[in-house]
Structures are given as C-alpha cells and as structure tokens.
Amino acid sequence: MAKSASVYARIDPVLKEQAESILSALGIPTSNAIDMFFKQIVLKKGLPFEVRLPYEKPVCMGELTEEELNAELEKGYADLLAGRTKPIEQTIAEMRKDFKI
C-alpha cells in the first residue's frame, strides 16, 4: 500500500533529537518508526505498552511525626474497611514484576 497520509505533531525538540539519534543508530528512519508504532497500536488495539501514573514515594515510617503516622494508619484502616486490599501473594508478585526482583 502506498504511503500518502501525513502526521503532524509538535514535540519537544530535545526529545525529537534524542529519539532520532537512537533510531539513526538502529538504521530506522523516523517515518518507519512511526509506522511501526501505529501498526502496533492496531495489532494491540491500544498502546503497545503499559500507561500508568508513577508510583507514589513509599512512606518512611521512621521519618513521620506522630500526627503523620496516625494519619497513615487511618488511611490504611479506611482502605481495609472499604475492601481496598489484595492478597499478599499478589502484592509480592506485582513488586517482583515492577521492581525486577
């Protein structure tokens, strides 16, 4: 199929330069990389990678004031009452996957 459609996007020039440098080292023209990305979107019926918010910084219990500690404990208790918990096995599996341990 002939390529005749165009995509125009405004992106950070530094990001563009970094990406093009890597693609050049791989011998892949930018237009081919974009075409590959679009093909993966179609194949996966969505983005070809996980999109999520970054993790919140873990709470360091030893650095909390008594008031902050009580607030964290209250949040945990509220989660427990609302059923916002998961089995420890699931939590450990997720941590191993996310942190590659």
Automatic annotation (TrEMBL):
The protein's matches in Pfam families, at most eight in alphabetical order, are given as:
RelB (PF04221)
Q: Recite the UniProt keywords alphabetically.
A: Toxin-antitoxin system
Which domain of life does the protein's organism represent? Bacteria
Work out whether the entry's keyword set contains Zinc-finger.
Answer: no
InterPro entries, alphabetically? Arc_rbn_hlx_hlx, RelB/DinJ
Q: Which example biological process does GO assign this protein?
A: DNA-templated transcription
Cited NCBIfam families: RelB_DinJ
Q: Which family does it belong to?
A: Belongs to the RelB/DinJ antitoxin family.
PANTHER family xref list: ANTITOXIN DINJ-RELATED
- Kindly provide the name given to this protein in its UniProt entry: Addiction module RelB/DinJ family antitoxin
In its UniProt entry, the species of origin is given as Murimonas intestini
Organism lineage reads as: Bacteria, Bacillati, Bacillota, Clostridia, Lachnospirales
